[in-house]
Amino acid sequence: MNGDGREGGSGTGPVVAGAWWTDLGLLVNGDPARVWGLLDTGAGPEARLVAAVYRASAHVHRDATAGVRRQLLALDAARYGDLELAARISAVVVAGEPASRWQVEWSTGSQVDARVLHVIPHHFPPVDAVATAVVDGRSVAVTSGDDEGVLVWDLVTGEQVGEPLEGHDGAVQAAATGEVEGRPVAVTGDNEGRLRVWDLATGEQVGDALVGEDVRESKYLLENGSVCAVATAVVEGRSVAVSGGYDKTVRVWDLASGEQIGGLLHGHDDTVLSVATAMVEGRPVAVTGGYEGTVQVWDLVTGEQIGEPLDGRTGRMGEVATSAVEGRPVAVIGGEDGTVRVWDLATRQQIGEPLEGHTQGVTAVATGVVEGRPVAVTGGEDGTVRVWDLTTRQQIGEPLEGHSMECPLEVWAVATGVVEGRPVAVTGGEDGRVRVWDLVTGGQIGNPLRGHSQDISAVATGEVEGRPVAVTGGWDGPVRVWDLATGQPIGEPLQGRTGGVRAAATGEVEGRPVAVIGGEDGTVRVWDLTTGKQIGDAVQGPTGDVLVATATVAVTGGWDGTVRVWDLATGQPIGNHVHGHIGGVRAAATGEVEGRPVAVTGGEDGTVRVWDLVTGEPIGESLEGHTQGVNAVATTVLDGRPVAVTSGGDGTARIWDLATRQQIGDPLQGHTGQARAAAIGVMEGRLVTVTGRNEETVQVWDLSTGEQVGLELMFPKPVNSLAVAPDGRLVVGFGHEVAALSPR
After folding, report:
1. Are 370 and 423 a contacting pair, CB within 8 Å?
2. What is the pTM of this model?
3. Residues 6+ apart with CB under 8 A from 429
4. DSSP letters of 465-532?
5. What pLDDT digit, counting tens, does each position of 56-96 carry?
């Protein structure tokens, strides 16, 4: 404690050995590199919890100010279920900055995992390939993606090593590591059929690109001969690379001379997606998986195919890795059906039943050793990473779910390695991020609330039996109701729709609090928030609904550009649907202008339009100012004037006088990035608007002055939806998660 009784510490003084996790001032104010070096030195649940909290947003901490670190650490502590720790972090003193303006009331934690050691958000999505190696005693990862870059990362610090390895002219879809004449190298392949070899110690390319003669001479192959997979091996004393690609062939390369060894290996009927190498009865072999679902085994000395293909009936895709189980060489194969199958490479028989757990296709497989046990690590289209004990054939622990950030996003690359004696998995995927996982510790810390499994696209607030509540909907379909005071879910999720939720609003029907939900299935549904039951049948509205409710009506707008008004009591449309926007309607809100109920809509065409809810007619011309689509609309009364606040893809929020139809003041503009969400409420006696951006920030603006209130809030995931509750709480949907914050 500081002398004034507050948690503090500059983070620059001595730290009592073994007690760094009790010095929250060090975590907030200390040099992130120094703090990172301490995270593995503590023992016990408290130390492990604090280390997990720090790691959750470590990729932000490195470049953030102490004030931003304080806010994010408090949020992440709440995501792990420790609200007392969150409050203590918020109380830490930061020199030169005011006390924290926000208290984290609660947060769900569906995207935190104590097993994550690093999150490296660098590649433009996606990350196509990951490999690991040891360079000058450092454990490193080599990653590549569609951005044509090959990057090397120190797995201890999470920092990039040197400059990007540049030379490829197309997306780099394959990477492997090995040794050439005692030097650690990376071998990478691109979508133009070229492989390049990199000296990992110097960062220099070794020799010229490896290109087959047929590729050099054929424009078709150059454009369609993508290298999709590569592995390394030693064959009769020579370091070789084995590559497979879009042209359905397998090639073997001498890494010292840069020459192709032998002819093309034909056997697959479709793209070769994966390559692994192994020793079978003293012979070096390559195991290749094709998109048609078969796995071929090749003798790397003779270049001959060994036996018939391994066909496990896994559907399309054939991700493969090799290992040894009780002394037997095995191939581990993942398929489109979501199963993982293990084959004995000597007997060519499948071992036991398939391993089941993934809910969609398996897109990446790697093998390793954890505490002496051979394991397989698999990534899938379901966004999860799973670890399997290859001896007992059981899944180890819970799935690793960090890549399930949105939609969910597929895991496309997995590698295993060892960092300071600990076995780790390195994964990359469609989200463009690389994650490093501790394969030993594994246990979840704290009790984070679990909620949505995909991005939250809608948030609304209301009141049920005197309790303030939040209603959230996402692309996973179910609608959830949360007690805003406790953060606990109320009842079971509201089910009934197909597809994701586009928008949510709350209101009253005959005195009952209701939620009105619209989604990508084109329906509007009304739910009684007291009973949790749907009221009446679903109403078929326009395509891809966006909606808002008043006391008795709902206004919906869809991707077909129409706006409709519905009587919530009867479920019937009021009047005819109207057209006005060119392209889809992205947002809607209701208000009152000169005693007339109106709807305000924002469209894909960048315009804002006002509609008379009695006549269904547009009022005046469209309000124009946004240069890209309008993503959010909210209405209020400012100094006696009806106004609308809109936010758009151009990164601005704008305030409109609905009576004069003029923009009020300059656009509210903080940072770049799309403004995805907007809400209006009263905080600390001030009328404010809150805007959320896809760059993971939230800003609060005083509507009277147009000035930003306090520092922007940072979140670990993109902010897609938010609302301000009547009591001033701010409810934010970020990634798959929900958090409630209150002004201090």
Report:
1. yes
2. 0.68
3. 126, 127, 379, 383, 403, 409, 410, 411, 412, 413
4. TTEEEEEEEETTS-EEEEETTT--B-SS-B---SS-EEEEEEEEETTEEEEEEEETTSEEEEEETTTT
5. 888 889 889 999 999 999 999 999 989 999 999 999 999 99
